[in-house]
């Protein structure tokens, strides 16, 4: 199946069916507020705008999604790496992100206090790539398949109504895939990552579309990119929950990552990346899709064991409501 969206992105696959509701489904923010699951307002004294608290069962659901993603990746023989969240500015730029200017999405630490040009990592992909800077592999070692669970920091903001709440935030938890391959392997390995993502998200009972993205939607490093968008019934539109990209040798040339082929020649590797779980948007999709008329949310069966047998989420009454406290002068 290949259909064009607005003459740009191409739909390559539809997964699952749109859930039918008897009444108009609520948006995530309304459900979360009624059930005391998330706090996004009145956080000025805590952590500012675009921040949030996940409360009780919602925090457990975050953990469950991470555990489910890691089981998927371990079953596909990915090696788990724990990565640093503070990384050099040079590494960020070599991986293809700007660290200055109006389109900058990177948090840079105060250079007056930190002389080493340190940034907060926006994705574990950069730390995983940096792990092999100036490294030479033997061809027989490739492909290398790595996975990481990390906190991601983005300075980007949005005033779009459809990106309100948890949809675009300054920090979030993500499970990432990162692959190092030969040039001959990279096209097939992109399809490999996409297949893992499709199988993984299919068990979450979501309706999704897989998009082949056009060149003007690709970042500087990417040669080809797929997005997976989930139908958000409360918002009545598709929202991106995952992507995977083939960066060919864009990053490896800048980072000096090579391999020695069977003829003894040194060549640059290709790198690929893919999201196994980006928590906030998955939470939106799961809560809006799983909402029931009785004021509860049904959880996908595949997550029950990671929720210690919990099958539904109800209104939480034991967690106190956060209140804004004004300091006295």
Which terms would index this structure?
single chain; 329 residues; alpha+beta; BirA Bifunctional Protein, domain 2; 9-stranded mixed sheet; 3-stranded mixed sheet; 7 helices; 18 strands; globular
What is the topological layout?
Elements: E1 3-5, E2 9-15, H1 28-35, E3 38-39, E4 53-54, H2 57-75, E5 79-80, E6 86-88, H3 89-94, E7 118-120, H4 124-130, E8 136-138, E9 144-153, E10 171-181, H5 186-202, E11 208-212, E12 224-232, E13 237-246, H6 250-255, E14 258-260, E15 266-268, E16 270-278, H7 279-290, E17 297-298, E18 312-313
Parallel strand pairs: 5-9, 8-14
Antiparallel strand pairs: 1-2, 2-11, 3-4, 6-7, 9-10, 10-16, 11-12, 12-13, 13-16, 14-15, 17-18
Strand line-up across the major sheet:
1-2-11-12-13-16-10-9-5
Termini gap: 64 Å
- The CATH architecture can be given as 2-Layer Sandwich
Shape descriptor: globular
The H/E string reads: EEHEEHEEHEHEEEHEEEHEEEHEE
CATH class: Alpha Beta
Record field, number of beta strands? 18
User: How many domains comprise the coordinates?
Assistant: 1
Provide the β-strand percentage band.
25-35%
The SS-based structural class is alpha+beta
Question: Your description of this structure?
Answer:
The chain is α+β, with helices and mostly antiparallel strands and 329 residues long. It has a single domain, classed as BirA Bifunctional Protein, domain 2, CATH 3.30.930.10. Helices cover 23% and strands 27% of the residues. It has seven helices and 18 strands. The chain has helices at residues 28-35, 57-75, 89-94, 124-130, 186-202, 250-255, 279-290; strands spanning 3-5, 9-15, 38-39, 53-54, 79-80, 86-88, 118-120, 136-138, 144-153, 171-181, 208-212, 224-232, 237-246, 258-260, 266-268, 270-278, 297-298, 312-313. The strands form five sheets. It has a nine-stranded mixed β-sheet with strand order 1-2-11-12-13-16-10-9-5. The longest helix has 19 residues, at 57-75. It is globular, with a radius of gyration of 21 Å. It starts with a strand and ends in a 16-residue tail after the last strand. The relative contact order is 0.20.
């Amino acid at each position: 199946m290949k259909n064009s969206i607005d003459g740009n992105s191409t739909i390559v696959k539809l997964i699952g069916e749109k859930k039918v509701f008897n009444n108009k489904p609520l948006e995530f923010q309304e459900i979360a507020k009624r059930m005391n699951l998330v706090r996004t307002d009145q956080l000025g004294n805590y952590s500012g705008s675009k921040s949030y608290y996940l409360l009780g069962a919602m925090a457990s659901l975050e953990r469950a999604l991470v555990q489910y993603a890691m089981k998927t990746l371990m079953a596909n023989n990915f090696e788990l790496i724990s990565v640093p969240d503070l990384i050099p500015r040079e590494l960020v730029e070599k991986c293809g992100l700007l660290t200055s200017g109006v389109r900058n999405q990177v948090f840079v630490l105060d250079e007056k206090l930190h002389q080493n040009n340190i940034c907060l990592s926006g994705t574990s992909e950069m730390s995983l790539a940096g792990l092999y800077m100036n490294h030479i592999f033997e061809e027989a070692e490739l492909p290398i398949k790595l996975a990481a669970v990390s906190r991601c920091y983005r300075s980007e903001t949005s005033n779009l109504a459809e990106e309100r709440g948890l949809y675009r935030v300054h920090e979030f938890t993500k499970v990432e895939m990162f692959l190092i391959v030969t040039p001959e392997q990279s096209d097939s390995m992109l399809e490999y990552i996409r297949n893992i993502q499709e199988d993984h998200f299919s068990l979450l009972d979501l309706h999704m579309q897989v998009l082949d993205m056009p060149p003007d939607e690709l970042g500087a490093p990417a040669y080809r990119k797929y997005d997976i968008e989930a139908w958000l019934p409360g918002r009545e539109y598709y929202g991106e929950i995952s992507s995977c990209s083939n960066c060919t040798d864009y990053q490896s040339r800048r980072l000096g990552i090579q391999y020695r082929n069977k003829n003894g020649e040194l060549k640059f590797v290709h790198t690929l990346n893919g999201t196994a779980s980006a928590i906030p948007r998955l939470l939106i999709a799961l809560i809006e899709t799983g909402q029931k008329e009785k004021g509860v949310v049904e959880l996908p069966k595949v997550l029950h064991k990671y929720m210690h047998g919990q099958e539904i989420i109800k209104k939480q009454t034991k967690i106190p409501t956060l209140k804004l406290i004004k300091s006295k002068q």
